[in-house]
Fold this protein.
Amino acid sequence: MKVLILSVSAGGGHKHAAFALKNYIMQYEPDSEVNILDTIKYINPFLDKVIIGGYLKTIKVSPSLFGKLYKYTEKDDNLASLSNKLNEFMAYKLLPRIQDFNPDIIVCTHPFPMEMVSILKSKEVLEKPMVCMLTDYAPHSFWIRPKVDSYIVSNSDMVEEMVKRGVKRECIHDIGIPVDPNFMKKFDRSATLKELGLDPNKKTIMIMGGSLGMGKISAIYEQLSMSDIDIQLIAITGNNRKLYCKLVELKENAKIKTRILGYTKDVNKYMQACDLLLTKPGGLTITEALFCCIPIALFSPIPGQEEKNESFLLKHNLAVSLGDGSNCTEIIKNLISYPSILEAMKSNCAKFSKPSSGKDIYNLLSSIIHEKKNEETTCSADLKFN
C-alpha cells in the first residue's frame, strides 16, 4: 500500500503516532511505501515557525491564553472561518506533493492537514480516501470536517461525543492510538532499577513532562525529594536542558534517591519499572502509560485539550490529580500507603489499553483501500458496458 501520513511538529505526540503507524504498516506489509510529511514545514518553513513556533511559545509562556483560544475555536465561527482561509491557501500548496506521491490513502494525525485535505476533497480536486487519527482522549470541533472517510479514536466516550456533533457512527473506529512496536517489548523491573543504581524492592515513582519537559516538574520533584516518603524517583526531562540542570542541582540536597535522565528512547523500559507515573496528560504519554498499566498522577495540564484528557482519566479512575502541585507530597504519600488504590487503577489501565491498535489500524487502512479499488473497478466496468 502507498500511504501518505500528514502531521505537524506541535509537540511530540502527533509525529510519534505517525512514525508508530509507519512502523506497523511496514511490519505487516514490508513492500509498502509510507511517506510522513511535516505538513506546514513542507509548505512554508517560515509559516511553520510562525504557527507552530507561536503555539509552542504560547503553551510555555501563557497556557491560560492558549486555553481561551482553544475554547473560542470550539464555538467562534469567525476564528473557524479565518482558519479555513489559511488552510485553503496551504491546501493548494500541498496538492502537488499529494499528486506526485499518488497515495492509496491519506492519514492525518493533526487537524491542520486534515482540514487541508478536506478542502481539496470538497472542491473535487482530490479523491483519495482520508483517515484521521485523533491523538488525544477527547475531540475538538476542528476535527469535525466534511469528506473524512474514517476517524480513529482512543475510547468509546469520543464516539458518543462525535456522533452528537454530526459524525456518522459507522465512520468512527474505537481502536486506539498506536505506539511504536518497540514499546511492546517487556523488561525486567529488577534489572532496570539495578541498571539505574536504584533499589528493586523500593516503591519507584517516575516524573516526566513529555518530550518538551513541561509543567511543574522541578517544584514537584523538590517537594518529593525532601519528603519522608519511602520511595525512590526517576525524573525524565526530555529535551529540556534547563530543567535537567535544575533537577541535578536540586538532587544535591535530596533526601530521596533519584536518577535524573534527559531525552531517552527507553521510556517504556522505565515505565515498566515504576509503580506510579507523575506527568502532564499528553495523549501519547497517556497511551504509553496505559500500555504499561502504570497508574498516573496528573499535573500541569495544558488548558483545553489536556484538561479534557485529564477529565477522561479521572472519570474512569485511571489517574489522580495533583492539582496545582502544592500538596503533592500528601497525595503521593496516601497513594503509597494504600496499595489497593494503585492496584485498582492499574487494573483499569489494562481495561483501557489497546495493545492491538497498530494492527487494527493497518487492517482498517487495508479494508478502505480495498473498498476504494473495488469501487473504481466497478465504475470502470460500468463505463465500458455503457
